[in-house]
Amino acid sequence: MSVNIEGGVKTVVLPYKPQDYQLEIHRDNHRYRVVIMGRRAGKTELALNELITKSGMKPGLYWYISSSYKQSKAIAWRRLKKLLRDDPAWKYNEIELAAKNEELDVVIELKGADNPFSLLGVGLAGLVMDECAILKEDVWTEVLRPMLMDQSGWVLVISTPKGKNWLYDLYMKGATGVEEEWKSWKHPTSINKYIKSQELEDIKKDMSERLYRQEILAEFLEKDIGVFKGIQKCSIGEEKAPEDGRFYVLGADLAKHEDFTVLTVMDAQRREVVCIERFKDISWKEIKDKIQYLANKYNDAMVLLDSTGVGDPILDDLQMSNISVDGYKFTNDSKYKLIQQLIVAIEQRLITFPNDDILIKELEDFTYEISANNNIIYNAPDGRHDDCVISLALAVWACRSFIHSAQVIERREDEEEAVDRQGHGIEIDTDDSDTMSVIPSNGRY
Ligand SMILES: Nc1ncnc2c1ncn2[C@@H]1O[C@H](COP(=O)(O)OP(=O)(O)O)[C@@H](O)[C@H]1O
Ligand SMILES: [Mg+2]
Question: What domains are there in the chain, each with its CATH number?
Answer without folding.
Answer: 2-215 (3.40.50.300), 231-435 (3.30.420.240)
